[in-house]
Amino acid sequence: MISTLLYTVLILSLLGGLLAVVLYVVAQKFNVQEDPRIDEVLEVLPGANCGGCGYAGCRAFVEAFVNNPERTDLFCPVGGNKAMQMAAMVLGRDTLEQAPKVAVVRCNGSCQVRPQLNVYDGSPSCAVVADLYGGETACSFGCLGLGDCVQSCAFDALTIDPETCLPVVDEDKCTSCGACVKACPRGIIEIRPKGPKNRRIFVSCMNKDKGALTRKACPVGCIGCGLCVKACPFDAITITNNLAYIDPDACRLCRKCVAVCPTHSILEINFPPKKQEVVHE
Amino acid sequence: MSKTFSIGGIHPNDSKFSKDVSIVDLPVPERVFLPMNQHLGIPAAPVVKKGDTVLVGQVVAEAAGFVSAPIHASVSGTVTDVGLYPDFQGKRVQTVVIETEGDDWLDTIDRTAQVKQEITMVPKDTFQKIQEMGVVGLGGAAFPTYVKLTPIEGMNPEFLIINGSECEPFLTSDYRLMLEHGQELMIGAELMRRVLGTGVTGVIGIEKNKPLAIKAMQKITAGYLQWKVVPLKKRYPQGGEKQLIDAVLGRKVASFALPISTGAIVQNVGTAFAVYEAVQKNKPLVTNVLTVTGSDPKIQYNYRFRIGTPIEDVLKTAGALDAEGNLLPHIAKVVNGGPMMGKAVVNMKAPVVKSTSGLLLLTEKETKRLEPGECIRCAKCFQACPMRLQPYLLYQLALAGRTEELDEYRVFDCIDCGSCLYACPAHLPLLDLIRLAKNTSLKNIRKK
Known about the structure:
The structure holds two protein chains of two kinds. By secondary structure, chain A is α+β, with helices and mostly antiparallel strands. Helices cover 36% and strands 11% of the residues of chain A. In chain A, the strands form four sheets. Chain A has a two-stranded antiparallel sheet. In chain A, strands 2-3 form a two-stranded antiparallel sheet. In chain A, helix 2 (36-44) packs antiparallel against helix 4. Chain B contains 14 helices and 17 strands. By secondary structure, chain B is of the alpha/beta class. Chain B has three domains: 1-24 and 110-368, NADH-ubiquinone oxidoreductase 51kDa subunit (Rossmann fold), CATH 3.40.50.11540; 25-100, CATH 2.40.50; 380-447, no CATH class. In chain B, helix 1 (123-132) crosses helix 4. The chains are: A alpha+beta, B alpha/beta. Chains A and B meet through helix 5 of A and strand 16 and helix 14 of B.
């Protein structure tokens, strides 16, 4: 009885010891030297694995970041400047600051203003609609309103406003990872600099049709009239294919274009109401 | 046992309510819209401009590449615009608009009803004529006919199959054509057979739910040595090119392979008739036959229409519109084509085009989608799929956006027939997502 116990304990201990030696030898022989800084940098980043940086995941991004000190374009949009500074501190180098960015929806044609011509009752997915036909309204560039962008957002920053049927970006939650830009089959979402004091101006329309056609399809679409181009003192606005575009780097937020736009398709965000500004002056 | 294809398939009610209605001419419309993409391939290039006057049969757009077809004026009058107009699905297409004045045809066109039996043209000229007259496949895909007849090195055509199966429920335009113009379309078929080579055997495949058409065509083919009629068991989608080749010859077309790799070429009966008119009557493809049908017994017609007639004009003549031009209250949806593969019409001002085979008027109840449930892995979709795909799996993969696996499971082989959707007891929107995945996959493959 005692001997059975004894043998069992003995054999198992011997086996354990033997295997430990094997494991040790194998671990030594096949040891992979990994830069310890990768793990350290990984720890200071948010680790969302969203792919917004352009890499397959956070680890791939950090590997590139650690191994290529000369590259200045590597930036984690989720962590922003703060996380990148910390990452740079771990590595003991300087980072270039990037202006914080945010996703903006470039369509103004809410379901209240854009006339609905037909009813779609298929799969609730923008991609399916875009593949199938021209959409429920006459505008073949605007928002389809079925929320592919909302589903693509890993940060809960997008919602479809039930009143306007357009997606709304929550500025605080948006990390500008760009997942929605890829998800939108109409390409109406753009990643733009947040702007000073979160103030920004952009053309909220993607309609490249000629003015008359755009007007018929949507009362708030850009008709490419060019008034904003003339009004802009900084040459920040260009018109291509009947659609105005405001270059965020050249725009100085003077808001002259907003005032002249006949269809109100240029939006100003986070500006105080006009009256207050007059008082300030 | 009569022949049919070997994989999958479904048996929808055929609902051919308009089968006893003779083909009548639709009045010449006040205005026609001629889109430049009425065929598969490169859109035609307009050769007329605003203000030009044209006669019926005059070329308004020329073929802009190998896989392309010219477009001819279907009315006489003045070109009022060349620009972008939304098609029946709301997508913008380059379109030539002609305002009708009178009905003057080109002198060269033989407009008599007399059947011209005698074939005088040599195959080479026939081939050219088919190309010049803008004949495209009228079975639905609108693939330029002459491209299919162009010989490919290393591939010998053995069979020319004329597709008279018309497996789509409701539609009867092909059926009426076989009954009323059997002789003519037989001549057209024979012309195509001669282009392919004298050794080619001609086969006409007709589903058994059309006994009169089988009898009529059998009578006519008795006068042609190389032709025979093959009655087929009724089954959807028998009219699919690959399915028809399987049904008639028992040969399978591989993924991405052309049907001719099996030695067979398929042409629709409508196409055969168009070839007859083009070659024997020198008449370009400016008219075609469509069915206006639905569950309403009062609205059942087979019309010969001028290509480019606005859909609302067709419906008005058919009595489906009220005095103000709105659809009658019991009609909820107009479908361009049959109930299985047709697509909803969202723009009534858009025209019927070369390949339009029917306008189907559906009631609210018929068109309503049922609430999708959960997949219970019953594999009915798999049994129904004529391409031996696994629709439930493709659906899940498409939902998850797993493109590589979608390619592994041959999503690109899907023929959009909708059998899976029809068979699914959970009413899952299988085709919606599979079609999207297929189109994305094909786009990626083309990019490579």
